[in-house]
């Protein structure tokens, strides 16, 4: 079954700007004008396309790095906002990667499964009802990042706000994940087999974008 192309559209807008993307702006414009799911977000998404079209590629690339790579509040890695530096993030990554593979979706060698553009691209390849469920699970984090981007005045906020509008799930606020104190963790759990990191109980849960109690 063919997935929903709106997810591919949003994914492409959140990727690092390359010359090919700028050359494809007419195609983005056509998609914005024709995809019915985008109608409620058309004005803000149009502002983003206008932003892409009115600046040099170098400027767009510098701003992208400044926005997403140098500001943790805007990081596009979903689990970073849920688990922080907790080792449970690794378990969640493995679970999500297995979900990708279950659908025959392979990531590039340098991609992490919780990178939002990769996740949205994945949604465009799976049955819409499954994409809707996973989107609903992740919507709290997506909304959180979008609100941070909107507060910062970033035009990229439009993409995350649009993603939120695609789900019937009402976003819940996030609690900032704690930074693990390694000495305290070692004292609580003891060392692992290497004697370096604390030994934590392995996760037995499936993908959790918004775990209970977070």
Automatic annotation (TrEMBL):
UniProt-recorded name of the protein? Nitrate reductase molybdenum cofactor assembly chaperone
Q: Which Gene3D superfamilies does the record match to this protein?
A: TorD-like
Q: Short name of one Pfam family for this protein?
A: Nitrate_red_del
Q: Which UniProt keywords apply?
A: Nitrate assimilation
Source organism: Eikenella glucosivorans
From what superkingdom does this record's organism come? Answer: Bacteria
InterPro entries xref list: DMSO/NO3_reduct_chaperone, NO3_reductase_chaperone_NarJ, TorD-like_sf
